[in-house]
Amino acid sequence: MNAEDQIYQNYVNILKEELVPATGCTEPISVAYAAAKAREVLGVEPESCVIAASGNIIKNVKSVVVPNTNGLKGIEAAAAAGIVAGDASKKLEVLSGIEEQAKASIQGYIDGHPITVVPVENEIVFYIAVTVQKGNDEATVVIEHYHTNIVRVARNENVLYESVSDSDQGSELTDRGCLNVRDILDFANSVRLDDISEMIERQVACNTAVSEEGLTHDWGANIGKVLLRAYGNDVRTRARAVAAAGSDARMGGCEKPVVIVSGSGNQGMTASLPVIEYAKELRVSRDKLYRALVLSNLVTIYQKTGIGRLSAYCGVVSAGCGAGAGIAYLQGGEYEDIAHTIVNALAITSGIICDGAKPSCAAKIASAVDAGILGYHMYRNDQQFFGGDGIVTKGVDNTIHNVGILAKKGMRETDREIIDIMLKHTSKDAVAEK
Description:
alpha+beta, CATH 3.30.1330, 6-stranded mixed sheet, 16 helices, 8 strands, 10% strand, disordered C terminus
């Protein structure tokens, strides 16, 4: 692939759009971003706040710790943090600069101001509308489809900004329709390192630091530590453990930034950390590692394009396949090796549900990475799943297409049931506390 080709530039742009830093789980951070922007538009600290959110947002914010809030969870905490101390100009790092005094005031704001969460029933899977009010003045900020995609800003009766796009990819993102496995591999082999090195270096540095935090301290269910203690220290176990440990820390509210993929820190860590661990074991060059990470990231993004940002289908399954592809590449794998690795892995783990961000995400990451590694070793041992085996179809791109349909359309009712179950438990927990 030539650097002058449009598809080459599209692939570079896709990576630039996707591999961005975020402090905290991205759904609560998106709520905090909208709230910080709404306060900015209002011009003063509001007396009240209403958050209208789709079920998937409620699901993904409910059980995860919001960073820099002294351990608070939930939409109310995310909105309050954005209002009290958020910096909207930092987007997904909106809560990164909060000082200790401001942390303490977030709970005070929650206690002293009404914050109302309203579930929204519409066809938009990713939807957040934050309305803040003081006296007769109010401001509203609406985000749709992905985490920083503000589509409407209003103050009182005045619409200050409104997007004309209703695409679930957003009008500002590069069209992902150019993605396919063969071209992704061609790009990984031919990309000029100067075009991608800055973002890949940042991914390696940030995600490794969060993983080390998870392995060193007590976070979540400590899945990374459990894996190493229970299964030993071989590279396959380490690859699962480093990714799981990153999630342990992040779901527990770690304040260090992560470079995300497809809008998700867990996917960003799953797509990168196992590949980095294998690169250390194999002692490959920096060039080879970076190309493997380009491959893993783009394979993950490609799968998620058909699924959407949020669904009932666990996103780390896609990232585990990406990691498997990257690991295959590090070991000299070519197109057939990589294609079969992806198909085999999808046949193993497709169907793991997403029931929100929380400590068990780390265990799902471990399973997804294991499937990616197994998918590679199956093919190296002359074993594979064939077209007609369940959702597997002849051709890797066709199988990825099937998974997209399964996740986006077939699992809609599953998603509704998951959200219903989670909201019922929330109501029961609230009654029990009273």
